[in-house]
Amino acid sequence: MFFPTTIIADHLILFGHDFGMAAKDVTFEAVLGFVMDIASNLIGLGALVAVLFIIISGLKLIYSGGNQEQATKAKNSLMWAIIGFVVTLTAYIIVTTFLEKFTGIKVDDIK
Q1: Domain region containing 76
Q2: If DSSP codes are grouped into helix, strand and coil, which group holds residue 41?
């Protein structure tokens, strides 16, 4: 059975994030680092999916072969894929900006 939380010799590992300390000694910065790891992974996954949809939509547009209906569908898909990519990048910028403004901690300082 898989347990996402592991405590080995006073060393906390949660969902693959190594806190580097015992569970009782976890600090706010350590939890923030964990949350930022999850957020950056999700944002990276979202950006990857958006890029894949941009490629697929571009190929559909190329292979529409003059069919206006298929070309319109491909253009709409391309537009929404680009919007999705912009949203993921904006989410990262917002998260890092608010993190620095409200806590004074820079993303590069966390780990």
Answers
A1: 30-109
A2: helix
